[in-house]
Amino acid sequence: MEAPQNLFAAVPKETRKRAAAPFLPMSRAEMDALGWDQCDVILVTGDAYIDHPSFGMALIGRLLEAQGYRVGIISQPDWLSADGFRILGKPRLYFGITSGNMDSMVNRYTADRKIRSDDAYTAGGEANKRPDRALTVYAQRAREAYNDANIVVGSIEASLRRIAHYDYWSDTVKRSVLADSKADILLFGNAERALVALTHRLAAGEPIKSIRDLRGTSFMVPRGWKPGTDWSEVNSTRVDTPGKVEAHTDPYEMKDKDAQSCATDAAAGVPAAGVPAAGVPAAGVPAGAGASAAPTAPVAPVAQPIRIVTREERQAQMRELRETSVVRLPSFEQVKGDPVMYAHASRVFHLESNPGNARALVQAHGERDVWLTPPPVPLEMEEMDGVYDLPYARAPHPAYGKAKIPAWDMIRFSVNIMRGCFGGCTFCSITEHEGRIIQSRSEPSILREIEQIRDKTKGFTGVISDLGGPTANMYRLACKEKTIEESCRRLSCVYPTICSNLGTDHSKLISLYRKARALPGVKKILISSGLRYDLAVRSPEYVKELVTHHVAGLLKIAPEHTEQGTLSKMMKPGMGSYDRFKELFDRYSKEAGKEQYLIPYFIAAHPGCTDEDMLNLALWLKKNDFKLDQVQTFTPTPMAMATTMYHTRKNPLHKVDEHSEAVETARSGKIRTLHKAFLRFHDPANWPILREALARMGRSDLIGSGEKCLVPRWETAASGGMAAGQRQKQAAGGKMPKTVPFGGARKPIAPARHVRRGPQLPVKSGRK
Fold first, then answer.
1. CA-based, 20 to 30 A from 734: which of 74, 194, 550, 713?
2. What's the confidence (pLDDT) of residue 2?
C-alpha cells in the first residue's frame, strides 16, 4: 500500500493567506456578505449546524474551505419540496449530502421501533426535523432542485448502507443506498482523502462519472465493468462446500496383487521412454504411415534451475495480485431471498476491511453493479492535527439564537483525541465507519484545543468534560509492525485474546493527561468516553492515573453481559477482565481517599442471548447490588455482524453454510421485553412478566421474599396489582404503606449506582 499524498499538500498559497469565514454561510445574505455569487460545494445535513470538529459537516466544510473552495451549508431543510434545496443556488461542483452524525433511523426511533420524542442534534431538542432515511430523501430532493448537479453522499448512514443490508425498521433487506438515492458517488468511512481528491478533480473539469479510482468510494456501473483489462474477478457468490473426498492409498497395505500389475514395464508391454507403444504412431509421424517409417528420437529433458522465492517476494506478488482483484459478493437478489447467502456476504465483506490488504468488492443490483473500492488509507498524525487545527468558531450558528442544542451542550468542553477502534464489537458501527486502525492527534494539537476552549468557549468553568473518542484508552495504540498490520485479517485485535503484536503501552496517554491538567486555567480533566478495561489492566499505572485524577465519582465501562455464550457473539472479553479492573479501581480510589463507583453498561436481547443468560445476568446484578435505571436493548444497525446474526440466525464470525451454527435470536417483542425486564428486575412494573418467565423456566425458587429471590410473590399498584398485605390493611381500614420493600431487608444503595445515561453520541463516546 503506497503512502498517499498529504491531505494539505495541494492547498494553493493564496488560499493559505485568505481569512476563513466566521461561519460557513447558511443563507444568501451571508453569501453576499462574503462576496460570493455561488458556492463551489453545498453540504446538506440533517443536524443543526455547529461549527465544531465533532460535527461532520463542520469538519468537512472547514477542510474544503482550507483547500480554497467556497462552502455553504443547508441544515435540516424542509424535505417535503425541493424549494429548501435552492436557497443557496446551484453549487458549482456538487451537493454533499449527509444525514448527520447519526444514522437517521437510529436517531428517530428507539430499539422498540417507537419514534423518539426528542433529537439531541436539533435546536431545542425538537423531534421530527429530519425524515426517515434522510440521506436518500435529501439526495432525491437535491436532484429535483437541480437535475444536472453532481450528487455526492456520505456520513455514517452512507457507510452502513453502501451494499445490500438488513433494515430493522422495515424488517427487510434493502438495496444499496446508491440505488435508491440516485447519487453519482458515495464516500464511506472517514472520507477526507477521497473528498479532497474528488473536489480537486471536479474543479479541474473531470466528469464525476469518470472518477472511479479513489479509495473509500462506491458507485454504480454497468454489469461486469472493470477498471482495466488486467483486473480479475474472484467469485464469492456461492457458499463454499467441500468437494468429493478421495480416500488416500495406504502405502503399507499388504494384499495379493495381480501379477500383471507388478510386472516390469517391459514384461507388461509398456514402452521404454521415448518409444511409442505398439499401434501408436510416433510423434510427428502421420497415423497410418508404414512400419518402415523411422521412430522419432527421444527428446532430452531441459534442466531448469530451482529458484527459491523469498517470503517478501511472495507477499509482494500477493499484494500486486490483490490490488487488481475484485471480489464479487452475492447479488442483492440472492441475499434478499437467502439468509445463508446474506451471512456469507457479511463475512466476506468484513474480511475485506483492512486498508492494507482489502480488495475491491462488487455486488450486482439487477442489471447494474455496485462497486466498492478498498477502504480509505488512515490519516497520519500530522494530517489529523491539520484537520482539527482548522479555524472552527466552536459554537452553533447564530441563526439558532439562544436555543439549546443538547449534543452541543454535551461536547462543547470535550476534546476528540483519536478515531477508529480495533475492538471489533459485533453490535457496534464504529468499525464499519471509522475502521480498525487508530488515528491519533499529537499532544501539542490537543493541548492547543484545550487552550482554545479555555479562551473562547462561553461558560467554561475550568473542567474539560472528556479527552477521548470512540474509546477512551486506545490513543496511539497500534500494531508493533506496520507490515504485520497491513497483512492482518483479524476482525478484532483484542478478541478472543489481546493480540501479541498489539502495543498496549499507555505511557503516551498518561503523559497527555498530566500535561493537560497542568495547563493554566484548567481545574479538572475528566474522562467520559467508554473505557476498554481489558486493555487498561495491562497498565496499572494508567488505571491509577485515571482513578486518582480523572474520575468525578463515576466511571462508565461496558461489560455488556456476563455469560460467555452471549459474549462470544459480541466479541467481548469475559468478566475476569472486569473483576481485575474493578479490583484496581477500588484500590486506587481508596488510596486517593475518594468514594467512586463503576457504571456498567449491559445490552438486553443480543443475538445468542437466551432467557437463562439474562436470568444469570440479573442474578449477577443483584449479587453485586446494582440497580440499573436506564438500559439498552440491542438495536440491529445496518451491516453490523450482530445484525447479520439477528436477521439470518447464522454466525458470520465463522464459515457459513446451511448446516453451520444457528444463533438463538430474541426477535419477538415479548422476548425482547422480557430480556430488558431482567436488567430492571427491581422495577415493580416488570414483576408480572418476570414471575411468569421464572415459573416457566422452573425457577420459582427466585420468587418470594428471601434474600436470594429476584422478585416478590405479591404485586404493587405500580405493577398493576395490590399486595396481599395491602389488601388486608385496606379491608381493615388501615393506611396504605408508602413503600413496600422487596426481596427482604436490604442495605441502602449508593446513589452513584443508580445508572442514569444521557444521549449516546457516537462522535464522542463508543460502547467498549
1. 713
2. 62
Omega before 496 within 30 of 0, i.e. cis: yes
How is residue 285 annotated by DSSP?
S
DSSP 300-329: PPPP----PPPHHHHHHHHHHHHHTEEEEE
Position 254 scores a pLDDT of 58
Burial of 496 (C-beta count, 10 Å sphere; 0-12/13-18/19+):
exposed
530: phi then psi, degrees, rounded to nearest 5: -60, 140
CB atoms within 10 A of CB 14: 8
Q: Is the pTM of this model over 0.90?
A: no
Q: Where do we find the cell 436481547?
A: 605
User: How many other CB atoms are there within 10 angstroms of residue 328's CB atom?
Assistant: 18
For the record, the C-alpha cell of 39 comes out as 458556492
* DSSP bridge partners of 329: 363
The answer to whether residues 49 and 75 touch, using CB atoms and an 8 Å cutoff, is yes
Q: Cell numbers of 671, please? A: 422476548
For residue range 380-436, what is the model confidence (pLDDT) as tens digits?
999 999 999 999 999 999 999 999 999 999 999 999 999 999 999 999 988 889 999
CB atoms within 10 A of CB 78: 12
Comparing C-alpha atoms, which of 20, 49, 44, 53 is closest to residue 94?
Answer: 44
Burial code (b: 16+ CB inside 10 Å, e: under 16) for 615-628 equals: bbbbbbbbeeebeb
Whether the CB-CB separation of 466 and 410 falls below 8 Å is answered with no
Taking the alpha carbons at both ends of the chain, their separation in whole angstroms is 30
Give the pLDDT score at 575: 95
In this structure, the strands spanning 597-604 and 632-633 are parallel
Residue 500 DSSP SS3? coil
Q: CA 376, CA 57: separation in Å to the nearest integer?
A: 19
- What gap in Å lies between CA 338 and CA 331, rounded to an integer? 11
Q: What torsion, rounded to 10 degrees, do the Cα atoms 600, 605, 610, 611 define? A: 80
| E runs forming strands in 465-596 | 466-468, 524-525, 554-560
Q: Is 331 exposed, middle or buried (0-12, 13-18, 19+ CB in 10 A)?
A: buried
Extended strands (E) in 227-307? 232-235
Phi, psi of 633 (to 5 degrees): -95, 140
The enclosing H or E element of 464 equals: strand 463-464
Looking at the DSSP assignment, which residues form a beta bridge with residue 45? Answer: 75
Residue with cell 456476563: 562
In angstroms, the CA 761 to CA 101 distance is: 8
Q: Cell 435470536 appears where?
A: 665
- pLDDT at residue 290 above 70? no
Cell of residue 549, nine digits: 485524577
